[in-house]
Every structure is written in C-alpha cells, then in structure tokens.
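Handout, section B. The chain below has 603 residues.
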Amino acid sequence: MFSSPRLLKQTLNSLENIVISTIKGEHLFWCNQHTLDVLGYDSIEDLLKEYPCICDFFIEDKKKGYIGKTVGTLNWLDYALAHQDKQDIKVKLNIHGKIEIHSLKVHPLDYDEQLRYVVIMQNITQLEKTSIALKKYQIQLQNKNRLYEELFDNAPIAYQALDKNGYIVKVNKKWKKLLNIETDYLGKHFSEFLSKETAPDLKEDFSRFQKQGYMDDAEFELVDQKNGSLTPIRVYGNLSYYENGVLDHTNCLLYDLSKERQQERELKENFESVMLSFVNILEEKDIYTAGHSRRVAKYSRQIAKNMALSAEDIDIIFRAGNLHDIGKIVTPESILLKPSKFNQGELQLMQEHAHSGFSILNQMASYKFIATIIRHHHERYDGKGYPDGLEGEKIPLLSRIMAVADAFDAMTTNRVYKPRMEIAEAIKELENNSGTQFDPKIIPYAKQYFSTLKTIDFEEVMPTDPKNTHRFAYFFKDLLTNVYNGDYLNVFLHDDIKASKYTKIHIIDLHHLHNYNNKYGWEAGNHVLIDLAHHITEQYKTQMVFRVHGDKFVVLCPRDNTIESAHFELPPELDFSIREVHIQKEKITSFQTLLPFITCHYQ
C-alpha cells in the first residue's frame, strides 16, 4: 500500500493517535510526533532513555478487561495479535499522572527482512466513561423497572389495566386481594366483578372516561368472588396511548371506600349523638317543652308513613324531627322561658332558631338535606312564614309535614303561657288552618294518625328539683318572697290530671299591710311578707305557694295534705285569714275561675 518507509512514516506522523513501532520482544524504536507531544518529549531518543518500552506506561487493571504487560502466559503484544480480531483490546495509560484509556491495534510490517509492528492507540477515555455510565444507567434502569414492578405488584392500592373495551389485561396483588381471587380474571370484562346495582353504571362512566381522558368520581361495588360480600370503591384513572395516538389501555386505581364509609357512619352517628345531647340540654333548660322534639319526630314519621313516602324519607324526617329545634341552643334563656307575649325584637330572636339550626347542621355534608328541612319547618303554606317566606310546594315536602307535627304538639302540651288543647280541638285547629298555614294535602293524613291517639305522653311542666326551680325563678318566682308568682298559677289549674293531684286551695290574706307600711316603712313590710312566705312553705310542706295581688298567698294542697288551717306569728298591727276552696267542687280550671275567691274582701 505504501511505496516506501518514508511515505509510511509521513502518514503515521499525520495521525492524531499514539503510534509506535516495535520489534517483537524488543524495545520500541520509533513513534510519531503525536506520541511525543502526548508523552511530553522532544525526541524519540529522550523518550527511549526513560521509557524503552511503551508497556511501561500500562496500568494493570485486568479485572475490568484492560491488558497489562502480560496477559496470562502471553506478553501484551502476543495477546493483542492473538485476540484483536475477536475483541477490542484496551489499555490504561498513566500519562504524567493522568489516567487515559486507549484502544490498541497491532499491525505487522515486514521491512528489511525483519518483522516489525506498528501499534496504533486511540484515546477512548471519554467514550469509555460514557460507555461505563451508560451501562450503569442500564443497570439502574433495569433495577428501577424491577423495583417499579415490585412496587406496582405490592402497592397498597388496587390497580388494574383495561383495554379500550373494558376488559382486564393486568392487575396487582391488592386488586386480587380486594376481590378475593387468584386466577381466572385476565380477559374478563370489569363489569363481571361489580354488583348488579352498580354494573350498569360502568358503560356510561367508561365512555365518559375515554372522552375526558380521566376518571376521578366513579363509584362502584366490587363483589367478593368467594363470599359474595360487597366492597364500595372509587375509581381513579387515566389513558395510555401508542405513539401514533391510538388508545392502548386505561390505568385504573381502585380505592377501597370501606373504612371511609365506616368513618362516615361513625362521624354521622357521633355528630347526631352530639346534636341530640344538645337537644337534651335544651329541653332540660326549657323543661316546659321537654320531650317536644321526640314527639315531633314520632308524629312526623307516622304522617310520612301514612303518605306512603319512601323508607329513606321516613328515616330522614324522623332524624330531622329529633333535631328540628337544635337552633334554640343559641336562643337566650330569657326568651325561651318568657311566659308572656314576645315584643317584636324578642320574636325576631326566637324566629332565628330555624336559621341557626340550619347553620349548625349544614356544616356537615351528610346533614345538608336535614338542615334544609329544619330551616323551613316554620314556613307557612300561604307564604307568611319564616325564615324565607316560601309558599306552597316551594317549601320542601318534609318541612311541610314537620310543620303540622310541630304545631300539633305545641297545641296538645302545656306551655307556661297557655294550657294545652284536647286532641280533637287540636285536629280541628289543623283543619281550620289547612291551605293557609298548612299544606291541605297533608292534613288528612295527619288527621288519620292523630285521631288514633288517646292521650299525649308529655312530661310534667312543673320543676321537680332545685336546679330547675332556681332556673324558673327568673320569670316565675316572686323576687321578694321567693315563692311563685301569679303568672305561674294558671298552669296547674286547667286539666283533670292536675285537678286529681291537687284537691283544694288555701287563700291566705294578710290584712292591714298598707297601714303597717305607712307606719313603719316599706322595708319593714317587706320583711313581714318574706317571713310569712317562709312560714307558709314550712307549715304546708309544699313548694306550691304563690304570692298574688301583693298581700295574698295561694297554696295548692295535694290530696294527702291534712292541714285544715295554719297559724302564723305576726306583728300586733297585722292579721291574716285563710279561705279554703275545693278545686272540683268550685270547678277551678284556670286562674280566671279562681280570681273571684282571691279578690273576695275580708269580713
């Protein structure tokens, strides 16, 4: 190929590679200029003085495939000649402390009847580093793929891949555990594993999934493949495409909602328990409406049953009935217990309880519907109710039912400000207000139920313990003497039940108090009244003592009371008299029927 050694040297000198010429078993005797430049020598003579053989630059590193001065039983040159056609021969060189990697190729030359070799070494340091890095990356990638497969298969959430038609192509262990299945699932349609109630929804949800490219709100029920139990799930998914844009498969994560549903049930039960506790607190505070919420719940449920509403609506209205007055928890006690008519400001405060109840319950998602029912249970059919003035069928049906139940209970149980009605009277009142206050379509169903009631199971209005006695004192106790005032007397005189418990009344008149006050002052007169009230309570051994008209006391005597008269020590300027009135004989049913006996002048 080359016509002369001179031309060969010129060619080799032009290469930007390390080029040396050596005799087999001998030292090197020639190198090109690039070799001198790389090794840092001015001439071959200088190089040969320090490094007579190029292998003096070799770094032994046989473990990584680099040849050294010898390879096994062969020297480096013989090894290269024997193996260079089958593999890449690589060496590591120490060039002034800098490590370089070179590929090595040996070419035999026959000049001057002596076999010589030209060794050409190309610097592949950067290429080798890149190759090593690439191999490391490949190993890491393989490890990552293996890790991803392990993570996928052992993921704590169920995964499935579906083809474009919804058939299963891949699942993980959690999916199999969720369905309690080990085999015979690949190639089956996902709907085969869903409950009969939710399977029909899959077609629509899957179609929407493919159109919008993701799924995040579809809920189904999986069927356990061994015991048939149902597991609620929510499916999250996205789509995977081929490079040409054709749909490959869908990736779906199946989130088990069992614990979430259980927590929701527990939260709902706890929330409702807390709300019912508030209702109990409210009714303990406002004892003349004790049991009201439970009765309204019971009445509402029965009316809904008579109307053939769904089991869900019947359950909802019962729960709403128990909580319908929860908003009164924020109503001032001075308003709740006021025995007389509200002024405009007080009325507005009382009416706020419907909105307050709504605000309390509306904070929890599962109670929003109940909150709405409670908000509107004081609306009127003619639109004159509160808080929103809704009319007719714009008022929720369950609110309209509850309005009837609420009104019936208010009419048939005692209030501090009025006696209760008989059941027939209350039904008549409902009919009279049909079409104005109440939905006329509901009244017949309410009448059907209320007509079956013989009695109303309501709690005693009377405070029976010191705590409630003191609570009632704000409105119903005489602030001077600490006995009850006249406003509270009417409650105990109106019906047969009370009449059977209290058989007679003693009216105690204190005489000449006006003159006594003029002579000794009002403070002295007040002390007389306080002492007299105390002695009356002590001698009659009852709390049913009322101060009326300033200088008169009324005592309700139970059936077992044996006191015919009493004696009280008074200042000599004062006197008293006691008149006895038999409740049944005189037909005492209210404060008005007792009033003539109270105002009768002392003889």
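Note. The CA atoms of residues 493 and 590 lie 5 Å apart. Compare this with the example in section A.
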